[in-house]
Design brief:
By secondary structure, this protein is mostly beta strands. It is built from no helices and 22 strands.
């Protein structure tokens, strides 16, 4: 939608489909903010360029009962920007996830990721935050299994924060990570 979105509710999964002729399938797009988002299942990226939430402007509370699972490139992700002329600055009131954030494999760029070009309210992850990985030293994951915003009020992860190494032992850029200029209290229940 070019304009603002009201409350968005999906009872099950937002699941991308790999290997379609077209790109950008199973996506929600909004130009001037979104009142709220509820997904009763998971966001599941398959391959590249699918299963994404792309909104410009202010977003209310986001609740996902399952996981955010990345595929390869730009799949299984939430990206909130301030790019629209009419939109208020980017922000997310809160993010509540019942399961885990898990980056993808291969190139794994913007995969299993939450990116907010502004402040992010309290974040609760019921599982773990796990970065993406690659079996090839030529494909380094970036922004995979990551949470990034300008500020984050508070982060609670019931499980672990994990950045798996690539096959050559290196770790990608912002994989299995929480990044912000300012972060409030961080609680990680596992490793």
């Amino acid at each position: 939608a070019d304009g603002a979105l009201g409350p968005v509710k999906i009872g099950g999964d937002l699941r991308g489909v790999a290997n379609l002729d077209g790109k950008n399938n199973a996506e929600i797009r909004g130009g001037d903010g979104m009142a709220s988002l509820f997904i009763g299942g998971s966001i599941i990226g398959e391959g590249s360029f699918n299963a994404g939430i792309l909104v410009s402007g202010a977003v209310g509370p986001i609740t996902i009962k399952g996981n955010i699972l990345g595929g390869s490139r730009a799949s299984g992700f939430i990206e909130i920007t301030g790019e629209s002329i009419n939109a208020p600055p980017a922000s997310v009131k809160s993010l509540t996830l019942g399961g885990s954030i898990i980056g993808g494999t291969g190139e794994a760029s913007i995969s299993g990721t939450v990116l907010v070009d502004g402040p992010l309210g309290p974040v609760k992850v019921g599982g773990s935050n796990v970065g993406g990985y690659s079996l090839s030293p030529l494909l380094v994951p970036s922004f995979s299994g990551a949470i990034r915003a300008t500020t984050i009020a508070k982060v609670t992860i019931a499980g672990s924060l994990i950045a798996p190494p690539s096959s050559d032992g290196t770790v990608g850029f912002e994989t299995g990570s929480i990044v912000a200029d300012e972060i409030g209290l961080v609680i990680i229940g596992g490793d």
